[in-house]
Specification:
- This protein folds into 2 domains: 278 residues, Zn peptidases (Aminopeptidase); 125 residues, Alpha-Beta Plaits, CATH 3.30.70.360.
- The chain is built from 11 helices and 20 strands.
- The longest helix has 21 residues.
- The structure holds zinc ion (ZN).
- Zinc ion binds next to helix 5.
Length: 412
């Protein structure tokens, strides 16, 4: 199995790993809008070439990008890199390279100018999830340096748009048949002693209330969309309370109970022509419904649309679905998942705990859509989607060692 020489080979050049991560942070792949993707893919293509991988860039056709995003001003690119060792089976590693926008004052100034302090590397996207990309490259470099071959062919995808649902990233590659593997590791969703065995699902809806404008001097001639929206949101509270019932909850492998949730009005607003002395003709608000394993997004969507209809009564409203992701769960005891768990235990010398994350990752594209066994595992960072995002560099190396161990030991 993993000999100490491989472990040492992976950890041999921590400065290179930190440099790679810093390089990645400096390319501001902010999504939305989906900036600098081409620069980042060019950087990865060069790194992967240096590691002896074959590469293919999958550029999403502009027409498809325009349909999903609204326009094609920012091209969507995904990179697939392979190390074919002639093994009968292939393992796929996926990492997304887009990051969420950065706001607020950061201790170090510019969030896209990385810096090190206290053994951590700071910068937007370090934790979510460029450190995992650096760890994956480090694992492959370590295997090369030690002269060891993985037990399975290695296929890596570096994908865009996870932060906006992944349809043109991991989703696009899976739909194109570009993922040719027997198991998948999505390089986020758990870390440390946790083995990522799935995630909750999510449904985003936009509810639009259509009223009728009128002069505020004669409001009786109009239909106030804002007031109707307020009534609809109050009406939805009944539905939200139903979600808390024990019948709806789900108990994870760690024994923790989890209930579905509903968040109203993450985004809300009026319409064009809003004015203080006008009865508002339009109001809209968002719904974020989190699904626990066992629920299906199709069922939940029809149930929630019914609840909106019931709450709306005679109000005219239009409901649009913005994001639909099924929950996904894998069996921690199944072949490749258990093998990955053993790799964590071997490197970190800890009791491994299965974990289902409350957020969502791209794992469902591989598990639900492509039907592959898969796990989520990456670097344990802090400040993701917030300020002063950072990762401990020691953890990047340890995660790389876990990847390398898993590759060497194989899928079962
Ligand atoms: Zn992420």
């Amino acid at each position: 199995m993993m000999t100490n020489d491989l472990k040492r080979a992976v950890a041999a050049e921590p400065a290179t790993t930190a440099q790679w991560l810093a390089d990645l942070v400096r390319i501001p792949t902010v999504n939305p809008p989906g900036a600098a993707y081409a620069d980042l893919v060019a950087w990865l293509d060069e790194r992967c070439a240096a590691l002896g991988l074959t590469r293919q860039v999958h550029r999403v056709p502009d027409a498809v990008t325009a349909r999903v995003v609204g326009d094609a001003a920012w091209p969507r690119l995904n990179l697939v890199a392979r190390w074919d060792v002639g093994a009968p089976r292939t393992v796929h590693f996926n990492a997304h390279y887009d990051v969420v926008p950065a706001a607020g004052p950061w201790r170090g100034g510019d969030p896209f100018v990385p810096y090190q302090a206290g053994g951590h590397l700071y910068g937007r996207g370090t934790s979510d999830m460029k450190a995992a990309i650096a760890a994956l490259l480090t694992a492959i470099a370590g295997l090369r340096r030690a002269g060891r071959q993985p037990a399975a062919n290695v296929e890596c995808s570096f994908t865009c748009d996870e932060e906006t649902g992944g349809e043109l990233g991991a989703g696009y590659l899976v739909r194109q048949g570009a993922v040719q593997a027997d198991a998948v590791v999505v390089c986020e969703g758990a870390a440390g002693a946790h083995l990522g065995c799935g995630h909750n699902g999510v449904l985003w809806l936009d509810v639009e209330i259509l009223g009728k404008a009128a002069h505020a001097a004669r409001p009786q001639l109009g239909v106030n969309a804002f007031e109707q929206m307020a009534a609809v949101t109050v009406g939805l509270d009944r539905y939200r309370r139903r979600l808390a019932s024990a019948r709806r909850s789900w108990t994870g492998p760690d024994g923790q109970r989890r209930s579905p949730t509903l968040t109203l009005g993450g985004v809300f607003g009026g319409g064009p022509g809003d004015k203080i002395n006008t009865v508002p003709a339009r109001a809209h608000f968002s719904l974020d419904r989190r699904l626990v394993p066992g629920e299906s997004v199709a069922t939940v969507e029809s149930e929630l649309r019914q609840a909106v209809d019931a709450a709306a009564g005679t109000a005219r409203c239009r409901v649009r679905s913005l994001l639909r992701i099924d929950p996904c769960v894998v069996d921690p005891a199944s072949g490749p998942v258990a093998a990955f768990g053993r790799a964590i235990r071997a490197v970190r010398r800890c009791q491994v705990q299965p974990r289902i994350t409350a957020g969502f990752t791209d794992l469902h594209y591989f598990v639900v859509d492509a039907g592959l066994p898969g796990v989520g595992y990456g670097v344990r960072g802090a400040g993701a989607h917030g300020r002063d995002e950072r990762v401990p560099l020691a953890d990047v190396t340890q995660t790389a060692q876990v990847y390398a161990h898993f590759l060497l030991a194989g899928l079962d």
